[in-house]
């Protein structure tokens, strides 16, 4: 039976335009000027796409439009030839298409490279071998054209025109990888990967992509080619090949564009293995060194932050390299870029929590960098880490010493007043200091020149303060609350580690002095801003904990904080794990999945399950014989005859499966010589099967035929009165999973729409679109609606429909006695 022709072009026609007659179109195409012929050709295209049949227009276009050399008309003709029916009802090619084929050949030899290239792109969309075979010499000649646009499209046309002989062109495509044109190399690499999944082919294509990125100056081109590399990585067998090229991929970091660098680092992190991680870390270290030697601007800071995060991921993924990464990253703590320093502390916090063997190294590096940290945010985080993970008596003493040095001499208020008094005393003589210098003028006389020295500024005095005191004097007492909690933790932990009462009292007194000094400073009026009530209350709590410790507060200060950090890291890992698995697209194979043996399968059963390159290579060497189409697997075996051959109206049906849509396609043929008005197709359904919509009447001319399509779905017939209850009942009974998120199903409404999914033990997928409703003003009314089932096989759809029907019958039968 006739099937619907494939179409690759969709054009929206204006809804307010009137459909022209066939006679008017022929007249405009024959006698009109270029503009009139262009408009008439557009109307023809709109009519054909709308389903109109214009049988006599084909020869008119060939005679009066095809010879024209206007570029606009040639563009429209490519669309016209793509959508126009090219075969007779019996499937044979129309005789008129021989003339069209001759016109294609002339366009393939046209001196204009655009006409050649666009014609080659059009030929990629044709499926008729009778049209493509005579054009193969001209297509192959375009492979040697001087213009890259023509050669690139010729490669695609060759591969699409010869799907069974692709192996013959592998060597040609390999040669195109060495072309001087980046566009040709790009298309050749993509074509090579589609033809073969062999490691050598994937490696050659990936190398070509990398070279294009390195040599092209356009950042958009770099990003597009990088996306191709990322797409290659998604295939499991290709990923193994790319893992060997990770060092070549890192060469792309020489590009100054930040987005390109970001994608490159993400790709490298996905491909790094235990064998290449050390080399990766060395390259990243060199990149970090380069950022220190360049002029500081926004992109450099963001790139430095990307490097820090990448090194962080490397260290967590491969703990063996952490010992070499930590000393490098701690250098960023004194960096002017606060974001990079904050990322370093996030890494150090996670590393010291996860890996106990790294704690001494992390504490040592933090203590060395503590005095040179220049950001209050970084100082707060570093202080918390030191207080939380200083677990030995020596570590406690070292951390407390660094804190004292970062605060300066205690008590803080008295020291600040001495500083202010000394500064005022030094300012008085300096303001009156005068420098006198004698000069000799041009006429030999003496002249004097006086100069007064400037007084020391407040900024210079602020620069001389220790870092933590500088923050306190500026009014930032949030760091004081963090510092007080850290000192309290150190004091409590030291008292557990050291049993000597004298040492305990000495360290607790020092801790109380630090906290009390910060409280006094906050209320003294010396800082730019007074301490807030919240910070003051926090300091008072820490002071009370040190002075009068009790078991509950000790547990909170010494254990609860670390437990909270551990819980946060677990939640973070659980959140990132599904996202990573989803991005990587892990292929899960069921244990009962069928195994396809290539030697035991027919040629028609291997679509998508074998390597195209290997199959075409086998055919090229004659190892596999081509067999005719098997009748049992053809469409003719699935056609159901609805009427007799001698009936005035002949009808036959075929279930057309298009992806997940199942449509009943009915062919109706008028075998009489009369015009039949209002021909209707009446379909009777069994059980709960219902039609989506009734087919509309049509008019059949003498000996004419038409295709009528109808969708079949299951109607909802149940006694349940709650929409969500019916959905739950349906999922439980059919073992289907709801794809609609819970947010879309929540709330009170009179209707519900949801998508359900199921997979059989044989690997068949099925989708069900549930659309139910109930009257909002009748709370006891049953649920009504429809369920549309879509599957790749007819048996799967029908069996699932029968299952739903049985479930609803059982529900009604169970509800009947209860109602009685």
Automatic annotation (TrEMBL):
It comes from the Eukaryota. Coiled coil: none annotated. GO terms for molecular function: structural molecule activity. It is a peripheral membrane protein. GO terms for biological process: endoplasmic reticulum to Golgi vesicle-mediated transport; intra-Golgi vesicle-mediated transport; intracellular protein transport. The keyword Endoplasmic reticulum does not apply. It is found in: Cytoplasm; Golgi apparatus membrane; Cytoplasmic vesicle, COPI-coated vesicle membrane. Residues 592-717 form the Coatomer beta subunit C-terminal domain. Keywords: Cytoplasm, Cytoplasmic vesicle, ER-Golgi transport, Golgi apparatus, Membrane, Protein transport, Transport. One of its GO terms (cellular component) is Golgi membrane. Residues 158-453 form the Clathrin/coatomer adaptor adaptin-like N-terminal domain. Oligomeric complex that consists of at least the alpha, beta, beta', gamma, delta, epsilon and zeta subunits. This is Coatomer subunit beta. It comes from Amphibalanus amphitrite (Striped barnacle). The gene is Copb1.
């Amino acid at each position: 039976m006739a099937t619907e022709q494939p179409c690759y072009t969709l054009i929206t026609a204006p809804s307010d335009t009137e459909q022209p007659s066939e006679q008017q179109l022929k007249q405009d195409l024959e006698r009109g000027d270029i503009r009139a012929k262009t408009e008439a050709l557009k109307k023809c295209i709109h009519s054909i796409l709308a389903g109109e049949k214009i049988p006599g227009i084909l020869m008119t276009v060939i005679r009066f439009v095809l010879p024209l050399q206007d570029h606009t008309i040639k563009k429209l003709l490519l669309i016209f030839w793509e959508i126009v029916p090219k075969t007779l009802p019996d499937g044979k090619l129309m005789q008129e298409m021989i003339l069209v084929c001759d016109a294609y050949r002339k366009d393939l030899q046209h001196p204009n490279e655009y006409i050649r290239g666009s014609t080659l792109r059009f030929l990629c969309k044709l499926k008729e071998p009778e049209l493509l075979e005579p054009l193969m010499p001209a297509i192959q000649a375009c492979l040697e054209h001087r213009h890259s646009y023509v050669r690139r499209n010729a490669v695609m046309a060759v591969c699409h025109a010869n799907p069974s002989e692709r192996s013959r062109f592998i060597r040609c495509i390999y040669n195109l990888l060495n072309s001087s044109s980046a566009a040709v190399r790009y298309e050749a690499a993509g074509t090579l990967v589609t033809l073969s999944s062999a490691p050598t082919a994937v490696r050659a294509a990936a190398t070509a992509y990398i070279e294009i990125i390195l040599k092209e100056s356009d950042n958009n081109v770099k990003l597009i080619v990088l996306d191709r590399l990322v797409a290659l990585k998604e295939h499991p067998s290709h990923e193994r090949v790319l893992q060997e090229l990770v060092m070549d991929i890192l060469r792309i970091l020489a590009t100054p564009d930040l987005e390109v660098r970001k994608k490159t680092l993400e790709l490298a992190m996905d491909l790094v293995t235990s064998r290449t991680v050390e080399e990766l870390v060395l390259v990243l270290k060199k990149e970090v060194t380069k950022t220190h030697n360049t002029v500081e601007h926004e992109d450099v800071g963001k790139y430095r932050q990307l490097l820090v995060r990448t090194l962080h991921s490397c260290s967590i993924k491969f703990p063996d390299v952490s010992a070499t990464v930590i000393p490098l990253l701690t250098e960023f703590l004194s960096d002017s870029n606060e974001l990079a320093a904050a990322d370093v502390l996030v890494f150090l916090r996670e590393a010291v929590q996860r890996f106990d063997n790294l704690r001494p190294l992390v504490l040592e590096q933090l203590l060395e960098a503590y005095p040179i940290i220049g950001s209050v945010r970084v100082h707060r985080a570093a202080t918390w880490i030191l207080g939380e993970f200083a677990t030995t008596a020596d570590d406690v003493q070292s951390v407390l010493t660094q804190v004292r040095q970062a605060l300066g001499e205690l008590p803080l208020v008295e020291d600040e007043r001495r500083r202010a008094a000394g500064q005022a005393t030094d300012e008085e003589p300096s303001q009156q200091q005068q420098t006198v210098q004698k000069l000799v003028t041009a006429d030999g006389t003496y002249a004097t020149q006086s100069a007064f020295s400037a007084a020391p500024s407040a900024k210079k005095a602020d620069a001389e303060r220790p870092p933590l005191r500088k923050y306190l004097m500026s009014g930032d007492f949030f760091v004081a609350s963090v510092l007080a909690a850290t000192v309290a933790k150190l004091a409590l932990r030291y008292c557990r580690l050291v049993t000597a009462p004298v040492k305990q009292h000495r360290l607790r007194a020092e801790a109380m002095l630090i906290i009390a000094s910060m409280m006094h400073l906050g209320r003294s009026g010396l800082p730019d801003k007074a301490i807030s009530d919240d910070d003051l209350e926090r300091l008072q709590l820490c002071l009370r904990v040190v002075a009068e410790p009790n078991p509950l507060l000790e547990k909170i200060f010494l254990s609860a904080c670390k437990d909270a950090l551990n819980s946060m890291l677990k939640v973070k890992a659980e959140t990132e794990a599904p996202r990573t698995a989803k991005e990587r697209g892990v292929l899960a194979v069921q244990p009962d999945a069928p195994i396809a043996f290539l030697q035991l399968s027919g040629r028609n059963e291997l679509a998508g399950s074998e390597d195209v390159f290997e199959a075409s290579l086998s055919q090229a060497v004659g190892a596999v014989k081509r067999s005719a189409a098997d009748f049992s697997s053809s469409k003719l075996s699935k056609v159901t005859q609805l009427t007799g051959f001698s009936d005035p109206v002949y009808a036959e049906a075929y279930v057309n499966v298009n992806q997940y849509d199942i449509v009943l396609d009915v062919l109706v043929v008028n075998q009489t010589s009369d015009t039949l008005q209002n021909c209707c197709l009446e379909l009777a359904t069994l059980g709960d099967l219902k039609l989506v919509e009734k087919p509309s009447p049509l008019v059949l001319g003498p000996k004419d035929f038409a295709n009528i399509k109808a969708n079949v779905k299951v109607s909802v017939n149940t006694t349940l009165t709650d929409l969500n209850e019916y959905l739950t009942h349906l999922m439980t009974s059919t073992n289907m999973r709801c794809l609609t998120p819970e947010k879309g199903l929540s709330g009170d409404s009179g209707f519900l729409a949801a998508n359900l999914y199921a997979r059989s033990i044989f690997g068949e997928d099925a989708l069900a679109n549930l659309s139910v409703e109930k009257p909002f003003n009748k709370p006891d009314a049953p649920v009504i609606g429809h369920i549309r089932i879509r599957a790749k096989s007819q048996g799967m759809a029908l069996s699932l429909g029968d299952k739903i029907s049985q479930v609803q019958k059982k529900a009604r039968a169970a509800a009947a006695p209860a109602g009685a």
